[in-house]
Predict the structure of Diphthine--ammonia ligase.
Amino acid sequence: MMKCVEDGHKIVALAHAHPPEDAAQEELDSYLFQTVGSSAVATIAECMDLPFYLQAITGSAVTQTLDYQLTKDDETEDLFALLSNVKHHHPDVAGVSVGAIFSSYQANRVQHVCDRLGLTMLAYLWQREQVALLREMVDNGVDAILIKVAAFGLGKAELGLTLRQAMPKLISLSEKHGIHACGEGGEFESFTLDCPLFKKRIVIDEVETITHSPDDYSPVLYLKIKKLHTVPK
């Protein structure tokens, strides 16, 4: 979104696909969406003072090929429903900002939905070199923490670290083991506490560490955000 604003676009709304209310846990292992941290995303809309639209994820990755064709009960159709709702409330909306860097699977599905709705997909991070991009994010005031880890070399000690704190290790693991420094291969997921677009800053008060998949070498762990508040900037 920062790159969108830099390029002259105006952000008019935020949209989020979330686990259904009866989901056993926050992590859905979705191929398309990040669901860890979903319970706190509304606070980002508060910090940006923007309308916020939600859509429960009821589908799954029915079509798992890189290319996508309209498929009943696929989670891509949840994205279509979400953006259709946004367009209904904001008829003049013209584009969708996405953070895809390397995943053609995700980019192709967002593009498919945008084409159906007459929207332009804005993917300013697409195909960027990830070490340079990680440094750029940190240098430009993106204050985000790791809320999920799922790669060799990352564990409980890295949960809750800021990108700035975790950056040396992420770059080292990228150089030694080829992991994606920005987590584009699912190595980690993050939650933004502050950035230049925020009018308030998020402070996390209480979290719970959840073991999603125990493993001696690369356990899948995530933080469930239980309590937070915002402070003026």
In short: The beta strands are 14-18, 52-56, 95-97, 120-122, 143-149, 188-194, 200-213, 220-232.
